[in-house]
Amino acid sequence: YVKLSTVTGYFLQDDPATNPNGFDYSTSNFGLVTRDYDTDGEYDPEKKQTQWQRFEYQVSKLNKESGSKVKYKVLYMGRHGEGYHNVAEAYYGTPAWDCYWSEKEGNDTMTWADAHLTQAGIAQAQKAHDFWSSMLTTQKIPAPESYYSSPLTRCLQTASYTFSGLSLPADRPFAPIIKELLREDIGVHTCDRRSTKSEIREMYPEWTFEEGFAEEDPFWDPVVREPAEAQDARSKVVLDDIFTNDRKTYISISSHSGEISSILRVIGHRNFGLGTGQVIPVLVKAEKVYGTPPATSIPP
């Protein structure tokens, strides 16, 4: 099985002293800690390279020296921009939202079933676009080599607004893959029921669906809400898939607050809540371990 863990000490977000409330990736170099690396002496003895260039060299060295059973990946995980469901929950209050309104398709003024981005949400994604553009140019940040997105419309829109039109390296084009299991907590809330495959294809005809992606939403249930343990189990499945089948190192994931929180639990990262449109990078170590994987509390 694959054992996943967070390699700490590289990003402010994995430091217990960093307060997640109000933290903004765009004012903190994505959270990359200003520090020296073991590899600086051979790569950049005169300190002429950016922190991100030195980090990229450090990660490549970790992968070169790790052997065949260990690999390291950097996950850039972005939460979607503000959606109409976020506005509705703020308006009605969380108790009324969870108990009543979240089960409706919308109200007289807006629809939040498979919620779309608001204008504010679009602006948040455009802010991310501008920040990536600046970081690629000034900080030489490694561009994602693979792009994955939740199938829910707000994430597809966020990924599109963020990465379309960037000056990306020729060998790292924005060619996203839609993955079912990167979606938000499943069930009850209509905002978390996805559109059909045909509807998604109509919106984003160039994008790729993962193999086996169903026409109709196979998981959403109007009565049962997915418990955290079940969500963590599926997060482990999708991460195992990515770490086993994608040889790339820098991975973009466009997802949701609940799902990114689940991924952070699965990789042993501290809890770090993200506001709409926020991004968290993590250095993850994956080890192939022989034997029985740790037991979970999920019944078969």
From TrEMBL:
A GO CC annotation given for this chain: cytoplasm
InterPro entries hit by this protein: His_Pase_superF_clade-1, His_PPase_superfam, PGM_Phosphatase
Pfam families according to UniProt: His_Phos_1
Gene Ontology MF terms in the entry: phosphatase activity
Gene3D superfamilies, per the entry: Phosphoglycerate mutase-like (3.40.50.1240)
UniProt-listed PANTHER family: ANCHORED PROTEIN, PUTATIVE (AFU_ORTHOLOGUE AFUA_1G10590)-RELATED (PTHR48100:SF32), BROAD-SPECIFICITY PHOSPHATASE YOR283W-RELATED (PTHR48100)
Protein's recorded name: Phosphoglycerate mutase-like protein
Organism for this UniProt entry: Oidiodendron maius (strain Zn)
